[in-house]
Amino acid sequence: MMMIMMSMLFLLNMFNKFYMQMIIQNIFFFYLFMILINYPLNSLSLVNMLYLNLGMDIYSWGLILLSMWIINMMLMVSEKILSKINMNYYFNLIKMMILFLMFSFYSMNLFNFYIFFESTLIPMFLLILGWGYQIDRIQAGLYMMLYTLLGSLPLLLMLMNWYNLNFSLDIYLNYYCKLNFMNYFLMIFAFLIKLPMYFFHLWLPKAHVEAPVIGSMILAGVMLKLGGYGLFRVLLMMMMNFSYNKYFLLLSMLGGFYSTLICLMQVDMKMLVAYSSIVHMSMMMSGLFSMYYMGFLGGFYMMLAHGICSSGMFYLVNVNYERMMSRSLYINKGMINIFPSLSLMWFLLISCNISFPPSLNLISEIYLITALVSWFKQFSILLIFFMFFSVIYSLYLYSISQHGKFIKLNYMKNVIMLEYYVLILHWLPLNYLFMYSYMYIYFNNFKILIFKIN
């Protein structure tokens, strides 16, 4: 693996040439398959140490593959950006993003993870400022920066405190350390903002609306998963404090339910998809806070499924925006009459978004619902309304955008083959991973740890 990482560092210099884009893209696909070959699923039941504080288990393995897949999708849709004069600047940001994401998931030390976790903010902030759609991108970037920095310093101080208590920050050693509620909250505060939890979510819709399509794809596909990954690691290290989880679980579920109602009020397609990310992450967060084995497994599946599905949804919104020059649902109507094939892709991805089989979303939500109902049986009433309104806003998005009276335009360009190719590459792995839902077998090391406290 270190050989792959070092070769990636040197080959990234080829990004500076315009004609090397496809070669670099193929190289990243090659890296993805090399990871699958050298580290197959059945070899990841425990942590595989690579070098010093770098390692990989099944949880980081899945998110590394997700990151490389979404980065490849970004490179495919960067054709218009590549024609600009600041092409090298864009490629340098992609270099930074790839390296920070890879080392974040490879880090088996909390301090190293903290450095790369916070460093991912830099390329994302510059992407929004450099390629945002309108002048409000400055405000959106400022919101994202301030919210992230708000949780950054408390996390750093708590890591110092944790080191004083345990004399180590290694992730793969689980510590049973009793903390008070304030220290517990400060330890997970940065991850709640990154996910985001409902009460700390205001930066996410603004960032999505103002970001370019590549920014929205990487933000929804991978950046939000950094918060879930960090929360997963930290909760396992603070299992003696699981009595505090009931407050965060209840708040995240109520916030997710309220977000489904907010989705029904949206007329901006991108804003609606952004709030749907908050809905899915709220449910994933509740599964983690339940501290049940099924909750952790469902959260892992949800991060993979939502990363691919939401990236495809944001790309679909951008395809409509390039033809109608608007994201408003009042204008994007009757698209099924003009682009029936594109309407089929809308149907496929929205059906995955509402957990229609055989998508991975279905497996993840079954596990999460099982964990939440096992944790508190009366939760089933809230979950019924939660799932019902989740389906309603998805059908609302599809029916209004695809049906109705089409507004005639003098000229509208056709959907090109590359756009269908990107959309299919979002849909296929989302349904192919359904057949690999037996990955629960390799979570046995997490299962043993969690059962010690339940």
UniProtKB/TrEMBL annotation:
Membrane topology: Multi-pass membrane protein
The keyword Transmembrane helix belongs to this UniProt entry's keyword annotation: yes
Subcellular location: Mitochondrion membrane
E.C. number: 7.1.1.2
Biological process per Gene Ontology, one example term: ATP synthesis coupled electron transport
Catalytic activity reported: a ubiquinone + NADH + 5 H(+)(in) = a ubiquinol + NAD(+) + 4 H(+)(out)
Domain NADH:ubiquinone oxidoreductase chain 4 N-terminal: 2-102
UniProt keyword list: Electron transport, Membrane, Mitochondrion, NAD, Respiratory chain, Translocase, Transmembrane, Transmembrane helix, Transport, Ubiquinone
Pfam families, per database record: Oxidored_q5_N (PF01059), Proton_antipo_M (PF00361)
Chief location bin: mitochondrion
GO cellular component labels: mitochondrial membrane
MF GO annotations: NADH dehydrogenase (ubiquinone) activity; NADH dehydrogenase activity; ubiquinone binding
TM annotation in the entry: 59-77, 89-107, 113-133, 145-164, 184-204, 211-232, 244-265, 272-293, 299-317, 338-356, 376-399, 420-443
Highest taxon, organism lineage: Eukaryota
InterPro entries registered for this protein in UniProt: NADH4_N, NADH_UbQ_OxRdtase, ND/Mrp_TM
NADH:quinone oxidoreductase/Mrp antiporter transmembrane domain mapped to chain residues: 107-386
Family the entry assigns: Belongs to the complex I subunit 4 family.
Function text: Core subunit of the mitochondrial membrane respiratory chain NADH dehydrogenase (Complex I) that is believed to belong to the minimal assembly required for catalysis. Complex I functions in the transfer of electrons from NADH to the respiratory chain. The immediate electron acceptor for the enzyme is believed to be ubiquinone. Core subunit of the mitochondrial membrane respiratory chain NADH dehydrogenase (Complex I) which catalyzes electron transfer from NADH through the respiratory chain, using ubiquinone as an electron acceptor. Essential for the catalytic activity and assembly of complex I.
This protein's name: NADH-ubiquinone oxidoreductase chain 4
Organism: Enicospilus sp. MD-2008
Name of the gene: ND4
